[in-house]
Amino acid sequence: MPVFGQPAPQHPNPIIPSRPLAFAQPLKILAAQIATDDPVKIVAIGSSSTAGRPPVIPYPSRLETFLRQQYRKNDKDRLITVLNRGLSGEDAPEERRRLERDVLSEQPAVS
Q1: Count of beta carbons in the 10 Å neighbourhood of residue 56
Q2: pTM score, two decimals?
Q3: N or C end: fewer C-beta atoms under 10 angstroms in the chain?
């Protein structure tokens, strides 16, 4: 399963990941859900890099588009939803406090 992780060689900013790479560990729950025709839900939690700000499209939206196209079925985009639970200015302790409410309560395939 791909993940964004390293910049393409021709990318003007070497810090921005721009091409899919494989995860080191398998995402078994996500893989099982994608193998079915059922909807798939992923929740992204984080701070400003997750929340995004204009004019940059936040990565959860880009990930959703990529996954829907990557796992098309019968020439139709899959119902794969990536919920954006990013809040600018937060650090890990604040994110941890809202993990149950904002992420786990959604029962995602990946969080």
Answers
A1: 9
A2: 0.75
A3: N
